[in-house]
Amino acid sequence: MSQKINLKLKVWRQKNTSSSGNFETYKVTTDTDASFLEMLDVVNEELIVSGKEPIAFDHDCREGICGMCGAVVNGQPHGPQRKTTLCQLHMRKFKDGDSIVLEPFRARAMPVVKDLVVDRSAFDRVVQAGGYVSVKTGGVPDANAIAISKENSDLAMDAAQCIGCSACVAACPNASAMLFVSAKVSHLALLPQGQPERHSRAKQMVMQMDKEGFGNCSNEYECEAACPKGISVSNIARMNRDYLKAGLS
Amino acid sequence: MFKIHRLLSERSRSVTVSGLALILFLIFHLSGNLLIYKGPEAFNAYAHFLESLGTIKYIARIGLIGLFLTHMFFTVLVVKENIKARGKRYDVSKPVGKRSLATRLMPMSGTFILVYLIVHLLDYTLADHHTVASVMNGENLGLYGLVLNSFQTPWRVIFYVLAMGAIGMHLVHAIQSVCQTFGFNHPVYSKHIKRASVFIGVLIAVGFASIPLFINVVASCSTAASCAL
Amino acid sequence: MALDAKIPSGPIAEKWSKHKFEMKLVNPANKRKYNIIVVGTGLAGASAAASLGELGYNVKAFCFQDSPRRAHSIAAQGGINAAKNYANDGDSIHRLFYDTVKGGDYRAREANVHRLAEVSCNIIDQCVAQGVPFAREYGGLLDNRSFGGAQVSRTFYARGQTGQQLLLGAYSALMKETAKGTVKMFPRREMLDLVVIDDKARGIIVRNLITGELERHEADAVLLATGGYGNVFYLSTNAIGSNVTAAWRAHKKGAFFANPCYTQIHPTCIPVHGDYQSKLTLMSESLRNDGRVWVPKKKGDTRAPKDIPESEREYYLENRYPSFGNLVPRDIASRNAKSVCDDGLGVGSTQMAVYLDFADAIKRLGRDSIEEKYGNLFEMYERITGEDPYATPMMIYPAVHYTMGGLWVDYNLQSTIPGMFVLGEANFSDHGANRLGASALMQGLADGYFVIPYTLGNYLATNKLEKVTTEHPEFVAAEAAQKEKIEKLLSIKGTRTVDSFHRELGMVMWDKCGMARTEEGLKEALVRIPQIRDEFWKNVTVTGSEGEFNQVLERAGRVADFLEFAETMVTDALNRKESCGGHFREESQTEEGEAKRDDENFCHVNAWEYQGVGMTPILHKEALSFENVPLTQRSYK
C-alpha cells in the first residue's frame, strides 16, 4: 500500500558547464508509489511555483529503455536497486526520514551541462569511429541467407541491449567507458555481418574512447554491477582480444 | 621496431605485461628461496651460482629493475590519467559491485610492496654476505647465515610477513586481471580462473612468508646445527 | 485547394514499381549540391538521413534529445511485420496489405498500404545486414511469431526490445554517415518553425537547447519525422519529450493536418495510481494470450481478488466475445475496460482498472512456463507497482499509445507544402483509423529506407530551386517571431506551472476525446480548451531565461502547441460522426455496442487547413476508394 514519506534531498546544482556548482538541500514529501523522477517532478513543481529554478535532469521515455535518465543516488549510479534505471526506481525503496544525495554522473569526458544533466556526445563519437556494419540501404542479401547460431545470436542480443546511459562510466573508479564500447564491439563481433570490419572496429573505437579522455580499465567490474541492463564484463575481454589481434595483424 | 609512443598508447597493457613478467620472476625467486629448507650448503650453492653468472646476472638485474620501473611508471601514468578522467570527485561514493578486498587494496598493496622492495634489497641483495651478520655460533654461513640471523628480530619477521600478504593480495587481483586484459573470459572457465588466481596468490605468499615464520617461530637457532633445517 | 494524392495509375501491385521507374533521378554528381534537413531521428528520421547521406545528399539531422539513439521508437516492444512467409503459413504481400487495410477499418489509402507491404521484406533484409540481432531458431534462421491477433506468423522480434534494436541499427547507419561527413548531426535542437520561401519549404528555425540560441538552417527540402501527438492527453505511453510542436508549426505554415482524431488506446497498461503520475507504462499485449480479464460483479466490491469467488466474477471479454475472448483487437478490449469501469465495477484504489489474472494459466501450465514467457514483464510490473503478479492478479487499464493521424501527405510523402515531406508516425497515411500491432516499426523504416530516397529525388529533379541564404527576409522574420514568442512566455510570470496546464488539458482530452466520444462532450471540450489556453497565456510561470539550458521553457513551448492542436483534434472528432477504428462516437454504434462505420458519408480523409489560433480550420476531403479490399463491417463476436 502506498504511503507518504518525508525525505531530505541534497542535490548538486550547477548553472552551466563553466560554473563551479554546489549542493543545495530540499525537503520533499512523496508517495511511495511514485517513481524517483516523479518525486523530482514534485520538488520541481514546488520550486517553480516559488519562482526558483527547478533541478535540471535528463529523462525521456521513463520506462527504462531510452538511456537518457541517470544520476548518482547516495553514491550509486541509478540508485540502490540493481538492474534498474533511475526512472524505474520507485520511492518504496526509501524510508521515511531518509537523506538522499544526488550527484550527476561524473567524468571529464562527460562534462556537466546543468545540474544533473551531462553531455554524453563522446559516446556518439565513439560509435562514429566504427560501431556499425558498413552496408548501404538496398542491395543486401535475403535475411535468411546467413544462418546464425541461436547461441551467438542470443549473446549478441545480450550485448546489444546496452542503452548508452553511461552508468558504467559513472560507476567505474577510473571513469572508463570500456563496458559501453565493448558492448557495441561484442554485439557486432559475435555476428557474421560484423566480421569483415571486426578488428579494425575494435581498434578504432578503443582509440576514440582514449581520445575522449575516459579512464583506463583496471578490471574492477563496478560497471557490470551498476549496469541497468546487466551487460557482462565478458564483453570487455572479447574486445580486448579483438584489439590485441588488430595490433598483431 | 620499438616505438615509445606505441608503448605509451598501450599504457594499461604495459602495466599488465610487466606485471605478468614479475609474477614469473616471483615464482623463480620462490623456488630458489625454498632451498633454504634444504640447509646452508644447498642455499649458499644457489646463491653462489647466481653470483657466478657475472654479466648475465647484471643483465638480469637490469632487466628486473627495468620491469619494476616499467610497472611503476605506467601504473603512475595510468592512475594519474584515471584521476583526471573522473574530474570532480563524488561527494558520496558507495561501490555497487562485489569488489574483493584485494581489488580495492591494489594501490595500497602496490605501494607497500615498493617500500618492502627497497628494504629487502638493502637487507640481502645489496648487503655483503660475509660480514659478522652471517656468523652463527662462530661459523660464517654466508647468505644463509645472514637470512637466519636477520629473522631473529621479531619486527623484521612481522614486516616481511605483512609484505608477503601484500604481494599475495596484489596477485589475487592481478592474475585474473591479466586473463581479462588479454581477452580470456569464459562462462565456465572464468570462475575457475578466479579461484586459481586466489590459489596462486595465496600459495606464493605462504611460500615466501613461511621462511621468516619458520625461522623465527619453529626453528630454534641457538646452534648452527639446529638451524640446519 | 484540391487534394491530389498523386496515386500512380495501374493495378495495385504494380503502382510502386511503375512509379519508381517514372520518377526523375538526380545526377549522382549533383546530389551533394542539395541540402536536406531531417527533423527527428527515430526509425523514420534516422533511416532517411542515413539513406540520403549514402546517396550523396548533404544532410543535416536534428533531434531534441542528447543523442539520436534516444528517440521514442526505442520503446517499441513487440515486433515488426514483414510479408516474408518464412513460416510457410500462407502469408503474402497481398495478405499483409489486406490485413492492414481491414485492421485500419477502411480509412487508409490502399496504394500506400500496398507499397508498405511490398517493401516490408526489404526492411528485414536491411536490418539483418546491419547486425540487428532478431530472434532465431536453433537452426540459425529467423524466428517469427503471430502478434496482435494476426492469423499468420509474420512478426520478427528481438526479445521485448524490437524497437530498440531497429533504432540502434538505423542509428548505427546514421553514425556511419556522420563519420563520413555526409550527415551533420545536430542533437539537443528543437525545431520551432518551418521557413517557406516562394511557396516551398526552404529551411527551419531551431533552438539550441544548451545555449538557448536560435539558429537558422536552409535546405532544398525539409523532412519531418517527428513522431506522434499522444502527449496531448498528458498521460500516455509516449516519452515525456514527445510533442506536436514541429508538426503543428509546419501546419501553421500551410501543411494540412489529417485525421487528428484517430488515436490508438492500448488495452494493457499499468493503471494511473496518483496525481503525481507523469507517464503510463505499456505492457506487451502478448499478456492477453494467457491472462484472463475480469472485474467483480458487484459494484464497489473492495474484497481482495482472491476472496472473490468465481461466481461473483465477470469475465466480460470472454462473455461478450465468445470466439475471440481475451484476444479481441486493441480498440475493443480498451473500450470494454472503460465501460465496465464507468459502470462502477473498476478495481484498485482509483477504481479505474480491471484484473488480468494469470492464476488459471499458472495452474494449467505451471509457474515456470509463465515465468519463461512473461518473466520480464512480470518483473517490470512488480518494479512499478510493488505487487507480485504471480500471487495476485495484475491490474491494467487502457492508455493512449499511438496516433494514426498526422500531417497530410500524398503518395510521395510530400505535404501540402512543396518540399516538405513527412515520415513515420508524424504523417497519416498508412494505418487508417487503427494501427495493427507490429506495424508502426514497419512503416517508419519503410518511409525512411525505401520510399523517401526515391520520391525526394523526383522532387529535386523536377523543381527548379533558387539558391536561398539564411539572410532571406523569411528567415529573419521567422526567427524574430520565435524570439518574440519565447520572450512572451518568459514575461508572463504567472502563478501556475506549465505541467498543471498540461495536466488540465489532458484530463479534458481523456474525458471528452478519449476512448469514447459524444457530440455533447466534444462540444464541451471546444469550450474548455480555449479557456485553458487563455489562462495559460495569462497565468503560466516560466522560470529561468532564454539564453541557457531551460527545460521549463522547452515544455512551455510544447504545451502551448498542444493547447492549440487539441482544438483541431476535437473539431475533427466532432466532424467525423461515425465510429471507426480508434475513433468511437457513441452515437454511431450497432445494437450490440460495437463501432459502426458510415462509409456513405465518411469514407474519406479529413485534412484541416489552419486559419488562426481559436479559428475553425477549413476542412478538405480526400476521398478514399477501396478497389482491392471490399468494404465490410469488422466483427469479432
Task: Give a verbal description of the structure.
The complex is a heterotrimer of chains A (249), B (229) and C (637). Chain A has 249 residues and is of the alpha+beta class. Chain A folds into 2 domains: 4-103, Ubiquitin-like (UB roll); 121-248, Orthogonal Bundle (Fumarate Reductase Iron-sulfur Protein, Chain B, domain 2). In chain A, 34% of the residues lie in helices and 14% in strands. Chain A starts with a strand and ends with a helix. Chain B has one domain (10-86, 103-227): Up-down Bundle (3 helical TM bundles of succinate and fumarate reductases), CATH 1.20.1300. Chain B is elongated and about 60 Å long. The model of chain B is unreliable at 222-226 (pLDDT under 50). By secondary structure, chain C is of the alpha+beta class. The two termini of chain C are 43 Å apart. Chains A and C meet through helix 1, helix 2 and helix 3 of A and helix 3, helix 5, helix 6, helix 11 and helix 12 of C.
Present the secondary structure layout.
The complex is a heterotrimer of chains A (249), B (229) and C (637).
Chain A: E1 4-13, E2 22-31, H1 36-49, E3 72-73, E4 76-77, E5 99-103, E6 112-114, E7 117-118, H2 121-128, H3 150-160, H4 167-171, H5 178-189, H6 198-212, H7 222-226, H8 234-248
Helix pairs in contact in A: 2-6, 3-5, 5-6, 5-8, 6-8
Chain B: H1 4-9, H2 11-33, H3 40-52, H4 55-86, H5 101-104, H6 106-125, E1 135-136, E2 139-140, H7 142-150, H8 154-181, H9 189-218, H10 224-227
Antiparallel strand pairs in B: 1-2
Helix pairs in contact in B: 2-4, 2-8, 2-9, 3-7, 6-8, 8-9
Chain C: H1 15-22, H2 28-31, E1 35-39, H3 43-55, E2 58-62, E3 80-81, H4 93-103, H5 110-130, E4 155-156, H6 162-180, E5 183-186, E6 189-197, E7 200-208, E8 214-218, E9 221-224, H7 245-252, E10 257-258, E11 263-269, E12 292-296, E13 313-314, H8 316-320, H9 330-342, E14 354-357, H10 359-365, H11 367-385, E15 394-403, E16 406-407, E17 420-422, H12 440-462, H13 473-492, H14 498-513, H15 519-539, H16 551-575, H17 599-602, E18 604-609, E19 618-623
Helix pairs in contact in C: 3-6, 3-12, 4-5, 5-12, 10-11, 14-15, 14-16, 15-16
